[in-house]
Design a protein that fits this description.
This is Gamma-glutamyl-gamma-aminobutyraldehyde dehydrogenase. Helix content is about 40%, strand content about 20%. By secondary structure, it is α/β, with parallel strands linked by helices. The chain folds into 2 domains: about 5-270, 3-Layer(aba) Sandwich (Aldehyde Dehydrogenase, Chain A, domain 1); about 275-460, Aldehyde Dehydrogenase, Chain A, domain 2, CATH 3.40.309.10. The strands form 7 sheets. Strands 14-17-18-13-12-20-21 form a 7-stranded mixed β-sheet, sandwiched between helices. It has a 5-stranded parallel β-sheet with strand order 9-8-7-10-11, with helices on both faces. The protein starts with 5 loop residues before the first helix and ends with a strand.
């Protein structure tokens, strides 16, 4: 698979079927209004096709369909072992269509084709398979009751789930929601980002082919302020799960309060600190990880290691190593299999990232490398991986989520100061520390207010462990059995014997 050349991928891209219609009750449909918008590839600026611009009318139809399907029991009351088999078939079909899904993902949002194929498709199918495999191994509880009573504690699917997802990992984010939501018997409406709707639309058809009944998984492409808002305000959506920015996450809590108090679970932004102490076991490994932490996925990562905190005594030795490691992360055409940094998602986002580079200059941070748009001749949205040194934590580039390959470097003198700087953020998604001192590692890990903590590595994770944020990075957790909490209600049933 990996041996395909850029020319091979470009040829396949020409022949690729682009489906932009909504998916409701097992079939593709135009939006009720008939409206569409253009899907433009950030890889080269090419128009890929038209996408249905769904709104309130489509939300009404899809929610009614999801509700009716849920109440019918065709999926919600199917035996868990049977749902498991269908979910595994769904994951198998994703793997069987890996090249097509990878190409759709790269064309739609610009990430390197090798990552789409090597990270996104397997990560997404694993989320479906893992959740499916788990669902017939979860037991309910019997309460500690008096002799003449029986207290059952059971979990039930919540009903209709709306999942609003972002564009940075369109397939993986969708599948982190779909895995536990579908496995536990819910009906789901996915609202993909208007910037990356294509893979969610294709996944819906594969789910149907796998045996997930029509109406259990509907996909409504469209804008946040139209169809997203309609779903978030809907009186018959039981649970809203979201991954995206903190700004929109807050708005969704308001919508829930203004409507039916639907459960709202939010995975939001981050500004993670990657802290390198002088006693790090391997400075070269730490430097390479620091570069990867800000360049992987073009820095469009909620967990991007965007604040690099370096102990002052090693900074002069360490920073040249980081700059050298960054040379291995050049922006390149996203369909070239050797590319490690692809295109940013669209022109608007490119300008936002360039705006932060301007802000870094204005605040007099010191540019060590990068800083400019590149590969303009391709028509794509590429930016050079960039490092600003000699920054301090009050700067905009240290406080705001840039969501691009722009690293902000801050020096510190003591463990206490490093922890204070790291925690001085509205976000609390993740952090990393590099040290050989076991006590320091444990104490720092306890002191950092984050949902994911890494020691002597960056960005470790798997379906087996929960993922989510403290503070304004969100609530609830994706992945692991903890994610099932979001998609089930707990019922206590008392029986007099
Ligand atoms: P975004 O908040 O702009 O959009 C996310 C989704 O919300 C999109 O589908 C969008 O159409 C929809 N939306 C926008 N306005 C809406 C409204 N008024 N009502 C309902 N829906 C609305 O985020 P984005 O730019 O797509 O994604 C980037 C953000 O996602 C970053 O902040 C990043 O940190 C975050 N993210 C978080 C995680 C995590 O797990 N914590 C993972 C990936 C991305």
């Amino acid at each position: 698979m990996i041996s395909l050349t850029r020319a091979d991928w470009e040829q396949r891209a020409k022949n690729l079927k682009i489906e932009g219609r909504a998916f409701v009750h097992g079939e593709y449909r135009t939006a009720v209004s008939g409206d569409t918008f253009e899907c433009i590839s950030p890889v080269d600026g090419r128009v890929l096709g038209q996408v249905a611009s769904c709104d309130l009318a489509d939300a009404e139809l899809a929610v009614a369909d999801a509700r009716a399907t849920f109440e019918s029991g065709v999926w919600s009351r199917m035996a868990p072992a049977q749902r498991k088999r269908v979910m595994i078939r769904f994951a198998d079909l994703m793997d069987a269509h890996a090249e097509e899904l990878a190409l759709l993902e790269t064309l739609d949002m610009g990430k390197p084709i090798s990552d789409s194929l090597g990270v996104d498709v397997p990560g997404a199918s694993r989320a479906i398979r893992w959740s499916g495999e788990a669902v017939d191994k979860i037991y309910d509880e019997v309460a500690a009751t008096p002799h003449d009573e029986l207290g059952l504690v059971t979990r039930e699917p919540v009903g209709v789930v709306a999942a609003i997802v972002p564009w940075n990992f369109p397939m993986i984010m969708t599948c982190w929601k779909l895995g536990p939501a579908l496995s536990t018997g819910n009906s789901v409406i996915v609202k993909p980002s208007e910037k990356s709707p294509l893979t969610a639309l294709r996944l819906a058809q594969l789910a149907l082919e796998a045996g997930i009944p029509a109406g259990v998984l509907n996909v409504l492409p469209g804008y946040g302020h139209t169809v997203g808002k309609a779903l978030a305000l809907h009186m018959d959506v039981d649970t809203l799960v979201f991954t995206g920015s903190t700004k929109i996450a807050k708005q969704l809590m308001i919508y829930a309060g203004e409507s039916n108090m639907k459960r709202v679970w939010l995975e939001a932004g981050g500004k993670s600190a990657n802290i390198v102490f002088a006693d790090a076991p391997d400075l070269k490994a730490a430097a390479e990880a620091a570069a990867a932490a800000i360049c992987f996925n073009q820095g469009e990562m909620c967990t991007a290691g965007s604040r690099l905190l370096v102990e002052r005594s090693i900074k002069d030795q360490f920073m040249p190593m980081v700059v050298e490691a960054m040379q291995g992360w050049k922006a390149g055409h996203a369909l070239d299999p050797d590319t490690k940094v692809g295109a940013l998602v669209d022109a608007g986002h490119l300008n936002a990232v360039l705006g932060y580079i301007d802000a870094g200059h204005k605040d007099q941070a010191k540019l060590l490398c990068g800083g400019k748009r590149t590969l303009e001749e391709t028509g794509g949205m590429y930016v050079e991986p960039t490092i600003f040194d000699d920054a301090h934590n009050a700067m905009r580039i240290a406080q705001e989520e840039i969501f691009g390959p722009v690293l902000t470097v801050i020096a510190f003198d003591s463990t206490e100061e490093a922890i204070q700087i790291a925690n001085d953020s509205i976000y609390g998604l993740a952090a990393a520390i590099w040290t050989s001192n076991l006590s320091k590692a444990h104490l720092a890990a306890k002191a950092l207010r984050v949902g994911s903590m890494w020691v002597n590595q960056y960005d470790g994770g798997d379906m087996t462990a929960p993922f989510g944020g403290y503070k304004q990075s969100g609530n609830g957790r994706d992945k692991s059995l903890h994610a099932f909490d979001k998609y089930t209600e707990i019922k206590a049933t008392w029986i007099k014997l």
